[in-house]
């Protein structure tokens, strides 16, 4: 395909050429696209035009960048490993990464009115509150905030969650069986704090999940957790499976 | 709470004041926050500072704007109606909106190599391809692209999908029972086309879902659809329910 001098802007034509290469698998998933100088030369375009095309394809989820390494085709299919959206380290492991939580904060506190409502507890009842960043190998995958009614998990603040999985501890040490979760999802832009914690650019699009986790405790259904988790959206593929 | 002249930037302090109002439900969901002049006056701040605080809270999913009407608190809980992420008009109806599809394109075509792989068909086999925007009342909710193997739904191009629901037609007219879906989710930025179609700003964060829909056809499992859907993320709350 060639850039033509017609009514369409040149960066837009270059975008379509690259999309076609991806659609027709001339460049495979996780393969490098041609370098900027190469694209400038092949299609006789300025650096600005080439950059605009690539930046838009990154923003639209076709490509991702690795610092100092180049620009790669993002997995758009189901052919390779995917991380299931379930907060479980096993899924990160299945993707071939070694999951590692990093605790930023762990404390016992009184919840805000909104969080108390989410947990269906009184605002006077204490919660175990934890902020963590979960890494896959050396790459941050998500940052999450957990609120857990403290009376359901007394003593949990003594556990070192840099080493232990939250759900495993809840299930093993407290006789609680997690049964289901309801979560909302939205796209937001990373603020300065999130950008630093997830090692991405400020203003990059990220996914915000908020949810309630339900569990069975001695035959009674309880809300064991209210969480908010922010996932980076550039390198990994997250999936959801639903049955009708 | 008051703005203090300490080390924290003033826009950041104002953000925290507004977040506290939301967390403590002094301003409820879908209620208006104080106007810009009011905030400038109350906290003795410049318009630029107030705008920066509000813009960041919009980007981070705390607030949403309605043109000419003001800035409102976004639903962050599960107390009110939520739209289930299932592509079904019934869920939009449950939210109290009247769903209306608007067909942009409907055609029979040969798939790209990537789409053929997703549908597990040969690239020579034709597909029914449709692009639609789904409205709830007068507000666009999502834009989606469907690819359906044509041999499973011969004659489907004669249906007017401005009036009929895609899944209803597939199930009723072709004896196909939809059983499950696998979808990936990522956050991207709206490009010019999507911004126009969803009536949002270019560069606004949106959610991109891509997926395969499986169905039962005379006792055999088939992939009935590969889709890509872009959801706006500012006004509605979308949710996912998962059982463990």
UniProtKB/TrEMBL annotation, chains A, B:
<dbReference type="InterPro" id="IPR036388">
    <property type="entry name" value="WH-like_DNA-bd_sf"/>
</dbReference>
<feature type="domain" description="HTH gntR-type">
    <location>
        <begin position="8"/>
        <end position="76"/>
    </location>
</feature>
<keyword id="KW-0238">DNA-binding</keyword>
<keyword id="KW-0804">Transcription</keyword>
<keyword id="KW-0805">Transcription regulation</keyword>
<dbReference type="InterPro" id="IPR011663">
    <property type="entry name" value="UTRA"/>
</dbReference>
<dbReference type="GO" id="GO:0003700">
    <property type="term" value="F:DNA-binding transcription factor activity"/>
</dbReference>
<protein>
    <submittedName>
        <fullName>Transcriptional regulator, GntR family with UTRA sensor domain</fullName>
    </submittedName>
</protein>
<dbReference type="InterPro" id="IPR028978">
    <property type="entry name" value="Chorismate_lyase_/UTRA_dom_sf"/>
</dbReference>
<dbReference type="InterPro" id="IPR050679">
    <property type="entry name" value="Bact_HTH_transcr_reg"/>
</dbReference>
<dbReference type="Pfam" id="PF07702">
    <property type="entry name" value="UTRA"/>
</dbReference>
<dbReference type="InterPro" id="IPR000524">
    <property type="entry name" value="Tscrpt_reg_HTH_GntR"/>
</dbReference>
<dbReference type="GO" id="GO:0003677">
    <property type="term" value="F:DNA binding"/>
</dbReference>
<dbReference type="GO" id="GO:0045892">
    <property type="term" value="P:negative regulation of DNA-templated transcription"/>
</dbReference>
<dbReference type="Pfam" id="PF00392">
    <property type="entry name" value="GntR"/>
</dbReference>
<dbReference type="InterPro" id="IPR036390">
    <property type="entry name" value="WH_DNA-bd_sf"/>
</dbReference>
């Amino acid at each position: 395909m060639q850039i033509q001098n017609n009514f369409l802007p040149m960066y837009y034509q270059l975008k379509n050429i690259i999309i076609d290469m991806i659609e027709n698998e001339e460049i495979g998933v996780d393969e490098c696209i041609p370098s900027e100088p190469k694209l400038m030369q092949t299609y006789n375009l300025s650096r600005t035009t080439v950059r605009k095309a690539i930046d838009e394809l990154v923003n639209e989820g076709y490509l991702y960048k690795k610092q100092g390494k180049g620009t790669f085709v993002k997995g758009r299919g189901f052919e390779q490993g995917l991380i299931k959206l379930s907060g479980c380290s096993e899924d990160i492991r299945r993707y071939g990464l070694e999951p590692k939580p990093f605790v930023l904060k762990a404390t016992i506190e009184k919840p805000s009115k909104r969080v108390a409502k989410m947990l269906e507890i009184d605002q006077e009842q204490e919660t175990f509150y934890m902020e963590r960043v979960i890494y896959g190998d050396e790459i941050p995958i998500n940052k999450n905030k957990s609120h857990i009614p403290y009376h359901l998990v007394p003593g949990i603040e003594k556990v070192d969650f840099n080493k232990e999985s939250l759900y495993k501890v809840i299930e093993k040490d407290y006789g609680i069986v997690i049964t289901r979760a309801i979560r909302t999802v939205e796209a937001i832009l990373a603020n300065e704090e999130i950008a630093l914690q997830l090692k991405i650019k400020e203003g990059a699009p990220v996914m915000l999940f908020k949810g309630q986790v339900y569990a069975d405790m001695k035959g009674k259904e309880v809300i064991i957790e209210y969480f908010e988790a922010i996932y980076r959206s550039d390198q990994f593929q997250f999936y959801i499976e639903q049955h009708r």
